[in-house]
Amino acid sequence: xxxxxxxxxxxxxxxxxxxxxxxxxxxxxxxxxxxxxxxxxxxxxxxxxxxxxxxxxxxxxxxxxxxxxxxxxxxxxxxxxxxxxxxxxxxxxxxxxxxxxxxxxxxxxxxxxxxxxxxxxxxxxxxxxxxxxxxxxxxxxxxxxxxxxxxxxxxxxxxxxxxxxxxxxxxxxxxxxxxxxxxxxxxxxxxxxxxxxxxxxxxxxxxxxxxxxxxxxxxxxxxxxxxxxxxxxxxxxxxxxxxxxxxxxxxxxxxxxxxxxxxxxxxxxxxxxxxxxxxxxxxxxxxxxxxxxxxxxxxxxxxxxxxxxxxxxxxxxxxxxxxxxxxxxxxxxxxxxxxxxxxxxxxxxxxxxxxxxxxxxxxxxxxxxxxxxxxxxxxxxxxxxxxxxxxxxxxxxxxxxxxxxxxxxxxxxxxxxxxxxxxxxxxxxxxxxxxxxxxxxxxxxxxxxxxxxxxxxxxxxxxxxxxx
Length: 468
Known about the structure:
There is one protein chain. The chain is of the alpha+beta class. The chain has seven helices and 16 strands. The model is unreliable at 143-167, 317-322 and 464-468 (pLDDT under 50). It is a single-pass membrane protein.
């Protein structure tokens, strides 16, 4: 069944059924009213005729039947049926709006429905993404808030921080592995800059004139991000005569243009190696070597003047195993608000053999220095007969934020001797006037307050006259 040419749908069928029911009900009511009216007319005629027959007079004219009294129930049914019919014939508000939009946009109703569904799905996806991101951030904050704080045996001091801080070992292990990987990649990819020089040999006077012209792209070893470079020039293997250029302050591209002369007979010069060693000058501590250039003179054509550039190479791998002191790993954590520096000595490896049996009894001393004076010191336990000790011991120093840039942290590995004097194996100095990896570790600590930063360091020669 179709309504006004519309396609047959379940809704149209339902409406048609309702209309039919209403019409049937109204037809029944009309037939009932007709029968009622007819019965009332018949009853009135019979009553009038009976009265006239008894009186003997003529039959009265037919009177109009009295108005039919429609029961109230029937009236209510009629009114409700009329209301239902009006509701059935009237179009719903939602469909009316949809049809109006379809007429204005020339888009079919099903197309508008699909668009609304798509918008709803998009909003649901956006809400899910926001909720997932919020949950992930909350989870990350909770994970970051997990401290390496050992709560056993500690009391709260109001809002103050703990006296003893133990970092999370898993976080430190990950940090150590990352630093080891970074260290290996730095060794393979680290650029130390390059050096330009000129060689001119005079066969008549047996004089080798070496000119240091310039260097460029040197690494910054000072806290300011620059260096104070100078160059040492000497011949191997004797090292008897060394020349030095002037120090150039705060530059990574120094221009020297200085010439040095070496008296070497031509018969001996082919067995010599010319060395350019570039250092970073430091007034208050040992000068750090940036890199070097080695030129075996038997590979050079001295019959002509040579002027060329050479890349600097690291000297760490060429010092020999006998000069290797070992490595130490420790973490640093500084809380500016509490003014507390926490040092966790984790482990050391490949330490230099100090005892007759080929082993050592190492322990670690931690000292806070200011203006060249030791103001605080602590030390770890002694590990017997090992070159790879494991400590995992924590030490806390109170250093106000105003002084953190003025102090030095000196970590020294010492070989314990029961009889006699304990011998220092090597040391690492961080903080004020530090350079290289030590400076980087210190700056990383300051840039990440409240977070332990672990890193491996190569031990350097200990200072003479250091206390044991």
